[in-house]
Amino acid sequence: MLELKQKIDLKAKPFNLSDEDIKWVEETLANLTLDEKIGQVFVDMLWNNTEDEVKERIAKYGMGGFRYNNMPAADLYKQNKVIQENSKVPALIAANIEAGGDGGVGGGTHIGHHVTIGATQDKENAYKLGYYGCKEAAAIGCNWTFAPIVDINKNWRSSVVSSRCFSSEAEQVLEMSKEYLRGAKDAGLASCMKHFPGDGLDERDQHIVTANNDMTCEEWEENFGKVYRGMIDAGVESVMIGHIRLPEMSRKLRPGIKDNEIMPATIAPELLQDLLRDELGFNGLVITDATHMVGLTSAMRRAEVMPYTIAAGCDMILYYRDKDEDVEAIKEGLANGVLTEERLNEAVTRVLAFKAMLKLHTKKANGTLVPKEEGLSVIGCDEHKEVAKDIADKAITLVKNTKNQLPITPETHKRIMLYTVDNSGFAPNKVDKAALKDRVKAKLEAQGFEVTLFDPAAGLNGKQLLAMTPIKEFVDSFDAVMLFVNVGGFSQSNVRRISWAMPMGPDIPWYVTELPTVCVSVFNPFHLIDVPMVPTYINAYTDNDATLDLVIEKIMGKSEFKGVSSVDAFCSSWDTRL
Predict the structure, then answer these.
(1) Considering the entire predicted model, what is its pTM?
(2) Measured at the alpha carbon of residue 168, what is the angle toward residues 423 and 499, in degrees to the nearest 5?
(3) Among candidate residues 550, 464, 538, the one with its CA nearest the CA of residue 507
(4) What is the per-residue pLDDT across 143-183, written as a single tens digit (0 to 9) for each?
(5) Which residues are identified as catalytic?
(6) What HEC string does 43-109 produce?
(7) Following CA atoms 495, 496, 497, 501 in sequence, which dihedral angle do they give, to the nearest 10 degrees?
(8) Are 396 and 540 a contacting pair, CB within 8 Å?
């Protein structure tokens, strides 16, 4: 049995509760049954559920919070009303508002990924990301953002922390994360920094395997420790725990610990209690990352891990697998002593204090848990789109232009051969839109270019297979080549690299010595490592239409490139700079 005695100061930050708030927390806790207490530590996932299904879940399990997949604003608004009207204790409703309102509601405004904001080199844009993104989510009744991402990209190979970080430097990550926090707070949402104890070193994906942060204790303190201390001091309300091991810190805090005893932070009391609570002084809410991720499930049987996450120091569990099994696992943990009733009460107290901090109890009393429906008009509004466009304009980065090939215009290079690589992977908030190749082609043609879209199965393009097209014929047919790449998002692999049609195939940039060539990455900022031969490389960070229009304008010289990469776009390789 773990002996963890957590100290909760409900009057201290981030809760800052009044005596009246504390009375509500204490009275609510006292009136909860065991089943209701267990329900409060779970965040459920809703996925196109009917109104009756939502009501039945709440009636049976009384879960403390919800995450949901993005749907149209009206549908989410209705769903959240059903949640709050049927919950005995007001519910936390969370979303991944990492890149704007599109993370919180269908049709929301994409403001920019964290790395986009970093490239603007302006912390005010981090505030705008938090404020405008959370403002749209708040309109449908969301009250909790699973952001900012305070990971630090120390390894360009990281399959998770590519576009999902502000910078590779701790100081910039902290500065921008604090601004996001301020923006979210002004919009009325609580923030959740993630993923403690810090991602961005291991190239493996914790969705697929347990990842490691192999920094020394001193290195960790200088980097992630600096960020966490700064965010805690700034009043961040919650922290999400990654399925990431921090072996050197575990060894320091638990002398003699064996390698096979070093666990991911989610179930590592020395990291949750000794480091996060005691050393860093975090007094807020601690939630696991998704508990069905293999980074956790490969470490311990689920029946054991459910009570152990709470016993080790987490206050909330992100997602059930099977609700009845998971609830029973908590009860078995209480029965066999893995989890004490005292520790469960501590966790529930923090959940209730978190809700009181958001004034959910008073909003329930006056009927404002879900705002007025007319507020939905803010979602995807013109004002927010203009903010997003301005940020994109300041972020788009000309990483490399060694042959000074720009500008490329219809007057100088009218005939364009367009290649695209489009494998964006699974994205929870993905918006249906035309294929990248079709959108780029149409936009180039609208500017006056003549565009041939690469197709290995037809016409002239077919002759290019295995480089069988005469070089002179290719050069005589085109004035320049453009390659647009969209590879990223979640996938079934640890790799977020460019894959080509075949070895020595016609799509690989064999043409860079024959014609002016421009490569544009519209998601992953580290694709130059896969195309080091291209003389002109641009990071656009996003593939939405407004950004694509801006990229083409900049290629044509109609506006200047303003972005400065906040990560190592050259991937620590000398040849990418040639």
Answers:
(1) 0.95
(2) 20
(3) 464
(4) 999 999 999 999 999 988 989 999 999 999 999 999 999 99
(5) 289
(6) EEEECCCCHHHHHHHHHHHCCCEEEECCCEHHHHHHHHHHHHHHCCCCCEEEECCCCEHHHCCECCC
(7) 90
(8) yes
